[in-house]
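re: that chain from earlier
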Amino acid sequence: MKECIMERASVIKEVKRPKYSFYDWENALISGDNLAALKILTKEPKIKGKIRLIYIDLAYLRIDPSG
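^ sequence. v structure.
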């Protein structure tokens, strides 16, 4: 998965991959633009159809609260 992310978008990076794989699944933490990451995860043949859960952390402080 890391190769797919790095090839497709330089603004997205895989932040952490756990040391252990449990049975036949793995987890990954991706940091970057939500829309760009979702596009990669839904279109990449190696990944497509294998995702069971995506947690999207809301953006913070992107809009100036003072107006």
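Residues 2-43 form one domain.
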